[in-house]
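stage 2 :: seqdesign
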């Protein structure tokens, strides 16, 4: 029996996305399927809803293609707790906006694996109330982080996880897609702060509270798998870190490590 890498996750049925039609976005009047990547609006379906314990602001580099980025997925499933800004964070105007938006930057965590970054287990939950995520290529994200170095955000990192992303990248499998990084942050947030609550002797088990963060990601992964399995003469890009092994043709599959 084929093992699905998302089998352990509590993700809503994605078949609704297969049955949706291309629709005109009420925000920009462009036709899209499932959602508008420009306006971050769902089309012809109601996405699952997630309540995030702290809000997240996503800064998407202007050079990042709207149709390829996965950060939109977060906005679709948690619209009231996710904000997306299109900015490269360069220039005096960006500095002014950041100071106005974050009057106390010490209470904001920036998700980036810098040398000063620490895991959530080393941060008190009462010391922060917002997360910032950078959306772009590794080169773009590093440049954006450098521009933020004087703002005063504290850097946080997640544990090492392997990506299931289908896009080519030149780094190893621990370099995640944006939505994967966001998902793992909240998974680790649960383990660090919510699993024990007020009583250290009682452990609350994680039951999929944030799994639907990967709702659209799972759907896209399934579409790619189906396409190549249905077209065996076509080969998946050899430039991908996993190459031909990315398409799961047989039972030798790798589950998502939880």
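stage 2 :: out
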């Amino acid at each position: 029996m084929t093992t699905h890498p998302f089998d352990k996750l509590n993700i809503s049925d994605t078949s609704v996305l297969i049955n949706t039609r291309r629709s005109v976005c009420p925000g920009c009047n462009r036709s899209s399927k499932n959602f508008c990547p420009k306006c971050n609006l769902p089309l012809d379906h109601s996405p699952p809803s997630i309540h995030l314990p702290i809000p997240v602001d996503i800064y998407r580099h202007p050079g990042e293609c709207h149709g390829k980025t996965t950060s939109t997925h977060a906005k679709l499933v948690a619209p009231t707790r996710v904000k997306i800004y299109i900015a490269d964070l360069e220039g005096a105007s960006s500095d002014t906006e950041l100071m106005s938006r974050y009057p106390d930057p010490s209470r904001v965590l920036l998700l980036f694996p810098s040398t000063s970054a620490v895991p959530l287990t080393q941060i008190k939950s009462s010391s922060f109330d917002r997360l910032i995520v950078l959306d772009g290529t590794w080169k773009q994200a590093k440049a954006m982080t450098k521009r933020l170095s004087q703002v005063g955000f504290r850097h946080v990192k997640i544990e090492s996880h392997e990506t299931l992303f289908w896009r080519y990248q030149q780094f190893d499998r621990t370099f995640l897609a944006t939505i994967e990084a966001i998902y793992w942050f909240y998974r680790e947030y649960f383990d660090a702060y919510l699993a024990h609550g007020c009583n250290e002797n009682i452990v609350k088990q994680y039951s999929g509270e944030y799994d639907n963060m990967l709702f659209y990601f799972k759907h896209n992964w399934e579409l790619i798998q189906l396409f190549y399995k249905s077209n065996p003469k076509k080969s998946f890009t050899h430039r991908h870190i996993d190459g031909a092994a990315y398409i799961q043709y047989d039972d030798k599959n790798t589950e998502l490590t939880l």
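stage 3 :: structure notes
- Confidence is low (pLDDT under 50) at residues 251-258.
- The CA atoms of residues 155 and 174 lie 18 Å apart.
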